[in-house]
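Lab manual, section 2.4: Encoding a predicted structure.

Procedure: take the sequence of the chain (61 residues), apply the prediction step described in section 2.3, and record the output as structure tokens. A sample record is shown.
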Amino acid sequence: MRAYLRQLAEEERRRTWTISGQAKLGELLRNHQQSDSKTLAKVFIDELSRYLLSPREPYIW
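Recorded output:
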């Protein structure tokens, strides 16, 4: 029972991490709609790199 609850908690943590990351990237896209593609790509990659390498939420696919 405890193992099952831990598994559910881990799945929820991953789901939350994924959803919040998608929301951050969506907000970034909205905020840079008028930017040229080169600037948008740089900002997008910088934010994505920070999010994936965040020491607070170490999540590796």
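Check your result against the sample. Residues 2-52 form one domain.
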